[in-house]
Amino acid sequence: MTLxxxxxxxxxxxxxxxxxxxxxxGEDSVYAKGNFIAFRPGAVIVDAGANIGLFTLFAAxxxxxxxxxxxxxxxPATFSVLAANAAAARRGxxxxxxxxxxxxxxxxxxxxxxxxxxADEVIFQHHPNFTMWSTQxxxxxxxxxxxxxxxxxxxVRFAPAALRRAAVRPVVAWMGRTTKVAASLVPxxxxxxxxxxxxxxxxxxxxxxAEVAALQGIAPAHWDIVRQVVLEVEFFLTKDxxxxxxxxxxxxxxxxxxxxxxxxxxxSEVCMVYAWRGEDRR
Length: 282
What we know:
By secondary structure, this protein is of the alpha/beta class. It is 38% helix and 21% strand.
């Protein structure tokens, strides 16, 4: 598939890739909002919940093809596509689209693991038709489906609410179909030690209900090397908890309800949270 920005990538479902492209690269990109997160050439970036690698490519583009990126994806089938796109980026296939100068060095470590608070082997609820929904938390998945049905039904106003919900359920059922897949989890601190990472300029988390656990996987000795964090959370209570954690570690923060801003009828609690070190902005 060729993206609107000219990058020819491997992917799974066009409907999903189109959605992710708009969210990541689009005019209203959640990762460019307010310039809360700064991307600079030479940055070290962690992409947790990388899926097929669109944020990885976005971050590389924002760094003009000069970055070291650690891209984590726990689902083996999805990881295979991430690995293919990472290999293409390393070959220089996207250098022109990224505006990379001659001699730019782009390193992407595609890692077939997810981030959590401890090392573990777990079973994921994998969504083969909408891979970005894959999660190890079955309750989280059910709550999200119920909320999504209500929000999508709210966009259709020509019929009674019960009929609208019935109309969207077949599509949601297709998106929500799951298979069980074994996957490996590791704490970020173990990766920091394994690769001897000395700084993380941007930590991005889109880990479908595992945000708190992923942050808990950063040992006290490693928090200072993390300079910026951007993450998506599904519920306001989770947003409050991660902001409390980030501010306790010295970050300044900002958040907004991204889907409510995008769709006026949505009751979704999906939020984007941004965090940065104040001393880095002075």
